[in-house]
Amino acid sequence: MKAGKKLGVGLIAAALVFGVIGCGNNNETKNTAPSGEASKSPEKTPSKTEKVKITYSMWGTAEEGKVVQETADKFNASQDKIEVEVQAIPYENYMTKLNTMATASQLPDAGMMREDGVVQWSSEGMLTDVSAMYEGSDSKPLDSLAYTYQGKPVAYAATNEILLMYYNKDMFDKAGVPYPPSALDKAWTWDEFVAAAKKLTNDKNGKHPGEDGFDSQSIVQYGASVENLTWQLEAWTLTNGGGFYNDDGTDVRIGEDASVEAIQKVADLYLKDHVAPLSVGQTDDGIQRTIIAGTVAMATNGQWNVGTSLNKAKEEGLKYGVAVLPYMKDKVTLNTGGANVVFSQSKHPQEAMEWLKWYTQEENNWGLISSGIWMPVLDKWYKDETLTHKWVDNPNFPPYDEYKSAVVDYAQSSAARPASWFFTNHTTEFNTLLASVLGDVWTGKTTAKDAISKNLEALKAANKGDK
Amino acid sequence: MSEVAFGRLKSKKRSNRTTNIITLVVVVFFACLVLFPIWWIFRTSLMTNAEIYKFPPSLIPENWLFSNYEKTLKVFKFWKYLCNTMVIIVPSCLAGTFTATLCGYAFARLRFRGKQLIWALCIGSMLLPTMVTLIPLYIGWTRGLGIHDSYLPLILPYFCGGGAFNIFLIRQFIMSIPRELDQAATIDGAGYLRILFSIIIPAIKPAMIVVALFIFIGLWNDLLQQMIYINTSDKYTIALGLTNFRGQLKSDWSLTMAATCLSFAPGVIFYLVGQKYFVEGITMTGIKS
Amino acid sequence: METFNKPRQRRSRIYSSEARVAYICLIPAFLGLIFLTYLPLLGVLGISMTNWTGLTKPEFIGLHNYIKIFTTDPYIKESIIATIYFAILSVVGSMIYSLFIAILLNRKIPARGFFRAVFYVPFVLPAAAIYVGWSWLYEANFGFFNYLLSEIGLNKVLFIADSRYVVPSLSLISVWLAGNLIVIFLAGLQNVPVVYHEAAEMDGANGWKRFRHITLPSISPIIFYNLLMSLIANLQVVTPALSLTNGGPGNSSRFMTYLMYDQAFVNYKLGYACATTFIIFAILAGFTAVLFKTSNRWIFSEGGDDK
User: Fold this and answer.
1) What is the mean pLDDT of residues B95-107?
2) C113 Cα to chain A: minimum distance (Å)
3) Interface touch B143/A106, C-beta < 8 Å
């Protein structure tokens, strides 16, 4: 068989074919570009007899899609202009599908969007300006929930989420350690946090880190786990006076000593303090692996875990509490939330906006909110005590006072800062690179300082988003 | 039969028996290793979500929650998804296997101008991950042909040779058949297509079933393309249905694993049925003697 | 070959009808190659010379993407190394494993059908389930393997959380998944003429000799196929990174196809991703060419191959 030679011949021939047909390329690429003109020009107002059909895409299972469609049907019945059809797309492939649809100008009219995509899509002109959406409304979304590009709001979050700390009450009682505070003004410092964690960490023989004969290889219970998914790390750089970016997201601050030191402190929980299990920031089931598994006493993560996994664990007997995050220099938590956007490919942006405005009312997402997965976006739910009671006073949640203090008040305090993807472009690229840079820091093969300083230029380039 | 020869035969039989026992022991050992992760998935399907993460991990579920399967079937509409999947798989398997056989035969046995070039192009097409052409193809199907929310983009490619891997497999198998067979038929005056149908196809049935099997499994688990081309949940397939337990920020792993355990049964059944043809007692006339 | 001895005129007549049949047989493949592979590939080539994000209109930027890959890309070098490392470990491992198991399963053992199904099952399972299942086994703190290690008093191994062990750990999964190779080997072993074995046995050849001189040559086209298929599949590896490691820790499992996927579908660098594609293509073509080049030395083709 002389297939090797044949392969060579074939490849050359293929190259020739490319060359000959190469001129056709321009057409090809032109076709593949979304045809802006055709889709951007808004259509004439539709006649009253015929409803305007719009599609709304959401991430979720087929079942969740049906629930939202039922909500949409209420909207459809409430007026005679707009007919909304819901398209559910599996969460883990949501952005892949959205991107693919965008390339072929097949996007829905409106849809949910992952946090890290919003500003970039906006900068590419893919999103309709929604600043007019809440004009003349009595209640607006919290200020921190607006996605802005060049200072203008381009989308509002569909939900509010913040980072906080969960803890296992039984473990604290057993070790005789006081619970972490749920009130912001009593928040633990980092050192208090580490000290408590040490008391809560036991090896096979019941020894704590720092004691004679403690064996870090046979730990059976860890004191603390700080989630190190890249976007959540931003909270720790901020609390140490550093950050990922400057205030408008145009420059990188990750190289500053304060930022590097904060990241190293998180890594040292495993490496030096021996109070945390190893996590390399690969999976997002942090609370299940720690608090619910019953292997860790305290763990930081988002408040959505109350609804996604903790309420079920509570039924099965887990006693957990919620507390504010410990701090290094400034008290900080991040708030975030996936966005609801109107795509500029839509022929009916007005109708799409009308639907979104109706749909974001808390009553229409009550299932998600009352289970604890989502928090309301409109500020009245935080400020009006009766509404807050309606929201939090329910068996899915920890005791009212505890949750009110560690979540509701925390979310509207000065400590709550929007995650940088609300205003920073190219965060996906930056976070991917930062995660890869820090990969060997968690296992101690290198230090945060070395890893970051070696890659600082690349990180800066990622923030600039060189195509 | 002389004494000596008889003795040798007996000892041979005995040694055959011992090697067979050793073989069995080795096979059982490896089978246990292979089955272990599968057992792990199965026992997960019978646990609560909290138990999955417990330490020390338990090999055997605490209270065998078969109710997980009931819960699963409520969300995972197995029969409907199976039906939808079969609508894709049956034509794809038939067409893919048939066209791959035609092409494989041409490459293995026939002489024609441009063979080397076409063969090289065929090999070249194997070197491309499917993800590479995903976007151009999606644009072609939706904007070019105006096909939306349809199974056609998933099925039609199998009418085009069933993929280079499968053409290649058939070709290799045809090449391992002694050429004298079809030459004898040629001398008898049989045409090329008749040789294909009366001599080659019976001889490579095992390979054809393997090809059908691979097309089956390939489509069964091809989440990415099905996710891209299918929009409405009424058209969901098994692969898409499996995502029903993994939502935003939340994954119900015990139910996912229960659905997984349900979903791989058809693949195994296909294998068990096909196995008879391609590994059990093939006594093809002409080839072995 | 005998055909060359035939009279010239007759041969060419046959040849033309032969070619006609061949072209008819190949119509499906032509269609597939043109519309499903090479035309889209032209599109990919075109896109690779633009800065298209998939969202706005592309601009033509010539070879800029290719230059960038080789100069400033922070991932590409480690990505190529990780891919090749993974492919070599997985190909060698799964070839030895699958041939070994196939030969064992080809013997007359009890419950043969059952065992054949057992080794094949991993191949049928959907990726999401497989990788999550294995991730619990591999978990660094409380995973099952580490539990076993600590029970026998050994230090923990971090498996997929450690950049040194992640690729071997993933390769093990890939070997475990090699049920398809076993199936092909089993089908191939059926084609080994029994008469040869019997004849050799009469001559007193032992098991290894018979394997070496009869079985191996007879299934060499199948070995070649499996080798090529497993090489290509493993060089295109993407699922473990997609569903388990996200390319990490660091870049230790940032396989090339995953890198491409990440650029195209996550980071909105479609033009750049398309350029990466051609690097993947070139590497794969290199390995494939070497394999084909060396193949004629060890492939014994019964049917001959007169092209």
Assistant:
1) 94
2) 36
3) yes
Report the pLDDT averaged over residues B148-170: 90
* pLDDT one-digit tens code per residue, C62-103: 899 999 999 888 899 999 999 999 999 999 999 999 999 998
Residue of A6, A89, A316 lying closest to B50 (CB–CB)? A316
Tell me, which fold does domain B71-278 have in CATH? MetI-like fold (1.10.3720)
Q: Say if the Cβ atoms of B40 and C127 lie within 8 Å.
A: no
Which of B103, B246, B268 is facing C25, going by the closest CB pair? B103
8 A C-beta contact, residue B100 and residue B211: yes
Average pLDDT, chain B: 84
The model carries a pTM of 0.86
Mean pLDDT for the stretch of residues A421-446: 92
Could you give the C-alpha distances from A20 to A16, A25, B22, C221, in angstroms and in order? 6, 10, 62, 36
Q: Which of residues 62-101 of A touch B (CB under 8 A)?
A: 62-66, 87-93, 96-97, 100
Tell me how far apart the alpha carbons of residues A285 and A313 are, in angstroms, rounded to a whole number.
14
Predicted pLDDT at B182? 77
pLDDT tops 80 at residue A233: yes
Contact A440, C249 (CB under 8 A): yes
| Peptide bond connecting B37 to the previous residue in cis, omega within 30 degrees of 0 | no
Give CATH for domain A48-160+337-411: 3.40.190.10
C78-298 homologous superfamily: MetI-like (1.10.3720.10)
A87, B231: Cβ pair inside 8 Å? yes
Q: Mutating which of B248, B254, B255 best tests the A interface, going by the most A Cβ atoms within 10 A?
A: B248
Pairwise CB contact (< 8 Å): B287 & C41: no
Rounded Cα distance between C149 and C144, Å, is 9
What are the strands, taking DSSP E only, across A101-252?
110-113, 146-149, 152-157, 161-168, 202-203, 219-225
- Distance from C-alpha of A14 to C-alpha of A9, rounded to nearest angstrom: 8
The distance of A61 to chain C (nearest Cα, Å) reads: 16
pLDDT in tens, C108-132: 888 888 898 899 889 888 877 888 8
- Which of A17, A22, A217 has the CB atom closest to C156's CB atom? A217
Q: Structural domain boundaries of chain C? A: 78-298
Give strand ranges (E) for chain C. none
CB pairs under 8 A between B and C: 300
**pLDDT tens string B8-28:** 556 666 677 788 888 899 999
